[in-house]
UniProtKB/TrEMBL annotation:
It comes from Paenibacillus montanisoli. This is DUF2199 domain-containing protein. It comes from the Bacteria. InterPro entries: DUF2199. It holds the Pfam family DUF2199.
């Protein structure tokens, strides 16, 4: 199956010309748990960075999953926590050309709860800085978690269709009872 061939969605029954090849979240999971009153001057959310209460630091990056017989990967756009030191260092080089050669990979905890998997919060990651204008590459620590296995081994287009249909059901109010939310 090619992403450009399209599919009839089992959720909505409509024909979609292409399979979505990426999904993302607009904020770290923990951002949604903070009352608006608690979001003070020490909390900030931008499209790529987040600070909560001046204590917790996150950046947005991409988990890329190889797709069999496709040139482009399937991408989960996710948030990862960093130590304050690594976050500040990342900010220091944010707009600097050649930053990818200056910043070593950094440890982080996955801070996005992805649908279609057992809980993904707090999976161990390494954050690899890329050129200015490209979100970091998020490498999951190899483990028995299905998401880590998919990143290491790849997936087929049928799996991407399954993900698209599950997210469609979740967005149409048929949320699973495991507490996960569809991606933003």
């Amino acid at each position: 199956m090619n992403s450009k061939i399209g599919f009839v969605c089992s959720c909505c029954g409509e024909f979609h010309e292409e399979l979505p090849m990426s999904y993302g979240s607009t904020a770290p999971y923990y951002w949604h748990g903070i009352d608006h009153e608690e979001r003070n001057e020490d909390s900030e959310l931008t499209s790529d960075q987040c600070v909560i209460k001046g204590e917790y630091f996150f950046i947005r990056g991409c988990i890329e999953i190889p797709v069999y017989e496709e040139d482009a990967p399937f991408i989960w756009d996710v948030w990862v926590s960093l130590s304050e030191e690594n976050f500040l260092r990342t900010c220091e080089f944010w707009e600097e050309e050649g930053r990818e050669a200056k910043l070593e990979p950094m440890f982080g905890w996955l801070s996005t709860s992805l649908p279609c998997y057992p809980e993904t919060l707090n999976l161990r990651t390494m954050v690899h800085t890329r050129e200015v204008g490209t979100r970091p590459y998020i490498e999951l620590e190899l483990s028995e978690h299905p998401l880590a296995i998919e990143q290491a081994e790849g997936i087929r287009m049928a799996r991407i269709q399954d993900i698209a249909e599950l997210i469609c059901r979740m967005n149409n109010g048929e949320r699973e009872h495991n507490g996960k939310q569809a991606t933003d």
